[in-house]
Every structure is written in structure tokens, then in C-alpha cells.
Amino acid sequence: MSLSILQKGIDMGMSQEEVLVKQIWDIYDSISMLASLKPSMEVNKLFSQLVFTCIPPNPIDVAKMCSDAQDMRAKLIRLCGEAEGLLESHFSALLASHGNPIEHLALFPYYDNYVKLGLLEYNLLSEHLGGRSPARVAFLGSGPLPLTSIVLAKHHLPSSLFHNYDIDPAANAMALRLVLPDPDLSGRMFFHTGDVMELTHPLRDYDVVFLAALVGLDAEAKARVVEHLARHMAPGAVLMLRSAHGARAFLYPVVDPGSLRGFEVLSVFHPTDEVINSVVVARRSLSCGHPPAGIELGHGPVVLPCKCSDLPAFNPLGHSGMMEELTLEEQAS
Prior knowledge:
Rossmann fold, 2 domains, two-stranded antiparallel sheet
């Protein structure tokens, strides 16, 4: 938000939060009138404007907005999700036109953000797995351009197997074309078509499960997905969720750490730089009689710190962000 717009709104007696909501509402009105959300100069301009408006830290709590603003935000998140899917499909097709698509990933305009987010998530995961690499990783909602899996597999987890799930067979076909020419990734990345809510027994095979931000577009849908994962993931396995904080919650759904029943929340990290998504790290609760540590994952015993452990607050990206370590009392409240 520009200082001039903010000052003008304040001069009119509006709070900083009211100015922000008005500005986002204006952008939403423009986006909702677009004939198509496929990549174009107008679409790119409006969504860039939206992102730049939402990035600066803002104390707004979207859960406390009026019902009309809540309705606008829900519709805006759906529009963002549709536009993101079309953008990824466009660039997946473009990348597939190259002999080895993996060598040209930087053509995607937000690739650097995925690199930074991948580093953030890897460092958080590594901290809670005691530095050990998981043998099998699942990514739910991988889409036509599975950059998170690719970045993690290429740069951080060179021995892990990645199983990518998406409900859209066309998206999986596009994603597969990207990795087939790469001799390493083609042997470690697999793609499955199906609804996450119908995925049961295979979930027990994964040491780590990533849940895409746009799987479950509202609190109720997200809660149903998490409840399903809690029933079917292996005890001790780690769940990586993407959330949003402050004004960034106009772009992506918010995951309430206190709502993750069946999981122990290990940490929450809110970036304050150009990385949009917050990251929530949780562990599938242990069954009765299981030891609290030393859970057997893919590479031998891995000590998983409990949610009330004395982990130091650290900056996984080496720059701006806020880390929360949740205690038992905070989760119970």
C-alpha cells in the first residue's frame, strides 16, 4: 500500500485496516470483471497489484472482518486459485517445449519465490527431523507445475522419493512431461490422480506429507482434509501445511494451528519478505504405547522434538520472518 493512499484514507478518518480492505476490494472488483483469468497483461497487472498490496506487514485479523468483507475475501481466494492454476498450466506447457524443462525453470516468473519457500520448508523440516532425510514424501495438490517437489528433490532431498497427488489428470500429465527428460527426477518423482479425501492406506507410507495451500479453500474444507490426514497418516509422520498471515490472508486460506486435531504443532513461521505463505509444521500424534521419540522413518531412528520442546527460535531463510513455538497450553486454549 502506498503511503499516499494510506495517508489519504487516514485523513478521511479510516483506520489502516479499513484503508487496506478498501484497496483490496477495489482490486477484487477489477479482477472479478475480467473476461478470463488466463495470463495476459491485464491479468498480470491486477494480480501483481494485489500481491504488492498484501505483502507489507499489517496487523489486520481477517477473522474479525465484517461478513461482507469475509465473503469478498473467500471469492478473491478462489479467483487467485483459478488464476494460479492457469498461470502454472501456461508455463508448464512452455517449459515442456524445451528439451530438458528442468534447466529452464527460471522462466516461471515466481520461480525465485519457490526456491526461497523450498529452503524455508526444508530448514524447518530438517530441524524437526534431526537433520535426517525422509525416505518418502507426498505432496497433495501438486498441480501442472510441481515446483515445490522439484526444488526439494533437486536441491535439498536428493535421496527422497516424491509422490505427487492431484485430482486433475491433465495437470499430472503436464507435470510428468517436465520431469521425464531428467534422469534423476524421473526415477524419484511419481504422479497419482485422485481426490485426497479418498486417499487412505498409501498415506501411511509417507514420512512427510505436504498439503498445498489451495487444497481446502475455506476453514471448514481445510479442517475436513486435515481430519482425514489425521486418520490415515502414520503416527509420528510430519505434516507440512501452508497458511497465510495478516494481509496475505486475502491471497491464501489461513490454517489455525489450534484446529489441527490429531496433530502436535511443532512450529509456525510467518515470512515478512516476498515469500507469501506461512508454514505450519505438525506431527501426527503418536498412538498409545508408542515412545515419544525415536520414531522409525525411512532412514532409521529419527528424534522428533515434541511441541513443547525447547527449540531455539531461528530464521530458516536467513532474513525476515516470525517464528512461533507453540506450547501445550497455547494449543489447548
